[in-house]
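We modelled the chain as a single entity of 130 amino acids. Its sequence is:
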Amino acid sequence: MRMVENALPDLTQLIELYRAVGWLQCHDDEKFVKNILLNTDEFICIYIGNTLAAFGRMLTDYHMSAFLDDIVVHPGFRKMGLGSAVVNHLISKAPEVKKVKLTTFHASEFYKKLGFTNPSCTPMEWILNP
């Protein structure tokens, strides 16, 4: 296992990883994904051999709050601790942060095992460009 932080991965591999879990639309391309990464505060790639097996990113002010986004592990590499490694590594990059937030549809039990709790507020979103 090799962890690489804040270095652009092979974007084709990252797109394949997103799509392996059903994320991204068919029109999302390397330029789209590169712009996401260039505007992200922290991100981490975990490789098994030469394969991008896990990825995650964090938006943060490094003091008050951080938002974890796109925590993804390839289905073929799950149950190996990679998701936990991604989350813990990202959080370690902002040790002064008081609150770490995220949204999830299907992995709430995973995040609860890491110490996350249900929010005390109502999560909301406004989808501008579907």
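As a brief sanity check on the tokenised model: The chain has a mean pLDDT of 92. The chain has one domain: 2-113.
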